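Case study.
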Amino acid sequence: MPKKTLQEIADHIGGRVIGSGEALIESASTLDQTGPGQLTFLSNPNYAPRVQETQAAAVLVAEEVETDAAQIIAEDPYYAFMQAVVLLHGHREHPKMGLSKRADISKSAKIGQNCNIHPFAMVSENTVIGDNCQLYSGVFVGDNVTLGDDCILYPNAVIYDGCQIGNRVIVQSNASVGQDGFGFATHNGEHHKIPQIGIVILEDDVEIGSNSVIERGTLDNTVIGKGSKVGDAVAVGHGTKIGPHCLLVPQAGIAGSAELGQYCVIGGQVGVVGHIKIGNRVKVGAKAGVINNVPDGATIVGTPAIDANKAKRAYALIETLPDMRKKLRTLGKEIDRLKDK
Amino acid sequence: MPKKTLQEIADHIGGRVIGSGEALIESASTLDQTGPGQLTFLSNPNYAPRVQETQAAAVLVAEEVETDAAQIIAEDPYYAFMQAVVLLHGHREHPKMGLSKRADISKSAKIGQNCNIHPFAMVSENTVIGDNCQLYSGVFVGDNVTLGDDCILYPNAVIYDGCQIGNRVIVQSNASVGQDGFGFATHNGEHHKIPQIGIVILEDDVEIGSNSVIERGTLDNTVIGKGSKVGDAVAVGHGTKIGPHCLLVPQAGIAGSAELGQYCVIGGQVGVVGHIKIGNRVKVGAKAGVINNVPDGATIVGTPAIDANKAKRAYALIETLPDMRKKLRTLGKEIDRLKDK
Amino acid sequence: MPKKTLQEIADHIGGRVIGSGEALIESASTLDQTGPGQLTFLSNPNYAPRVQETQAAAVLVAEEVETDAAQIIAEDPYYAFMQAVVLLHGHREHPKMGLSKRADISKSAKIGQNCNIHPFAMVSENTVIGDNCQLYSGVFVGDNVTLGDDCILYPNAVIYDGCQIGNRVIVQSNASVGQDGFGFATHNGEHHKIPQIGIVILEDDVEIGSNSVIERGTLDNTVIGKGSKVGDAVAVGHGTKIGPHCLLVPQAGIAGSAELGQYCVIGGQVGVVGHIKIGNRVKVGAKAGVINNVPDGATIVGTPAIDANKAKRAYALIETLPDMRKKLRTLGKEIDRLKDK
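After joint prediction, the assembly is written out as follows.
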């Protein structure tokens, strides 16, 4: 890894050095596990005391702190740190192998420039793939898919037929995009499969985590909006619309035909029932069960999900139910005694 | 897509036209997103008002409604609509490639007629595959598996050794069937793996969703009964018996050795503990935690799961716990004051 | 399968026969589904009555019981039974195919002795694989990975670049190890991907279930400790440390930077929030939501998770909330009446 001076890093991120700008920085690290040659950061003020004890060569902070380490002052230290990590370590480099002879690429497929398609990847008929795309081993792309530029499909990711993938989309390993929605018409005791004629649209800059499952729509399309990031093992139902710039944390599930606005944050293991509307900038705490429409800007948690402040107090009181019940009985007896007087 | 007249569709589904039977229908759609040439349906009476506003050429209904659109009257409009979708759009057509030279098919395997086995699929020793099966790219079928007729294994689906798959079974992408159950004997501080000598049996007409995991049994078999449909990312434990015609919604988990009757509906993210019995036609609401046996016909929800009507009122009251506690204290003080008198 | 006499089995596991040691045992089975030639076991005393009715030829028990079947007395009958299952049935045998020409193995990779690398598996650059490893079809191993001896990677398992895998590690089908952690710096309304420069370390004797997802660390590493077993569809976040000999039951999720001690048992569908510490020998009941540090030896359940004994009573009382509310109102009215007097 190439070393950078602290000053080079500060210049790159638009920050200001306190201490020696000549210090050589080799790598980025957490506050706790640092050593010489390392750069760390402080964005959560709760961790401020640790900055004083850090062994790091330098720390990225929003405001000057008391520490022996050199400092870079930056307005948004977490973002600045991200830029520093990219400068020091870069993003993953992909093998340059062009179109492997061991891949199976349909003659009717159109492949853009500078793509790398690895052994055992399959690109089906009439599919169009943009420039600079990486298709790792075991990737399957069905018929009539369109893929924009600069996409990365990691090993064994599957894109079913007809789906439309934007630019700079990343799909991690073993994820499934566009499989049939869970749609059956039950008649005379049998569940009849309804052809799922919608597709999945992943807009620009979407990332789908490993082993996540994004169902195609029954009649209309499933959409993940521009810039939204979906964690691992997340399930998105058929016809669901996720707005732009949402974050879906691992193991969350959004049932069919639900609609999320923009900039929503859906916690881990959250469940959202189908056919409801969640506004913009809604935050749903981990493990919540959302069963009703949610207005813009709400922060909710619990099952059923309610306002987070209310929930924090209310759910913590479940523990006191045996006491409450006892107290109720005691009061009842005392009242009886008073009535007897 | 081939257009059909409204009368052709009505004849196909056994319905009755109100309006012009000559109208040409091109595709099926939802109530909201319709346009000329489209057929939609009304099965949920709550949406009846939308029928009046629909832009669709025609609507499938159980009883005549007030609307400008033409109508087809059918007893079970959702099932009729399913039939119309199949007529208009068909089920997915599979590439006709026969047995790809780039697939790896054991010489000892027996493959039925008219199968398509795609590049990079693997069929292991002594495995028997019926007629008209589709094995997509990256599918793995282990040793001694039997697969019936008309099965579809989507990309990267994995069937471990010895499993028995019926006719018309569908396994979606990246699903795992027959991996080792989670079984260990802990002795002297180490967890020793117990060979899982049971298999998985998927009976006729079963569908397994993408990225679902169906463990093989430790000693007896894991069984998914005829016609049952398992959504995406569902986990079924070792030795578990799912009866026929059940629906398991995405992200549900049924632990080992649990038994479900027939026609159960298990909601999304539901958890069922191991070694319990769930009767026939049981409905479990989304996210419920089921820890006890459940009698036939019950509808339950919540964690722990209780009767759904009770649960609806009870769980909604968690929100009022702070108020209840306050009220309890107030009553206590008032009683004290009364006693002092 | 080779038959064994009861005496041979008893000798193998260090047990004592009651009845005829000459009886031939063919296979292992559960208590309920036994027949002639079968060996079963009793480890849970609740099932003792079933031993009297068993059709098995013999039963493994801790202490002599009343039954027509022959018996083997062993101190730890479940462990002894595991040994008997291995003796009778063995662990899965892996196809002996050496390094398939249809696999893609980088010239810079070093492969140990007696490995089997199946068709369509891919081993990337500078990766080192120990002796006696099994890489099934569709497995992907990225650049610079090290894999110890006697590892098994089942079909379509994915190991990203740089990860370090110990000896005797098993990764079941479609699992993902080392994909990017869910880490983004949000700035000016966009979520910027933070390069995840940590890796995943799976220590010796770890097993990862099918379709589980183990994120690589952002800056420090994600670690699964020696002998820990992870079930199917489990999600482990970036930088999380799982101590040795833990059991993570299917669909559990441990968020980023959480730390678990040794010998923890995490139930199915449990969620653990990030950045908390869970001590040694902690047991978390199924579906619990853990939001605070947990001391050594605790047994907790519920969302939020509390002491299991407390929780058992408290959560069961949610059902009584409507009654409690009614009672509160009644008491309030009675007090009002008393005050009026």
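Observations recorded in class. The mean pLDDT of chain C is 96. The longest strand of chain C covers residues 38-41. We will return to this complex in the next lecture.
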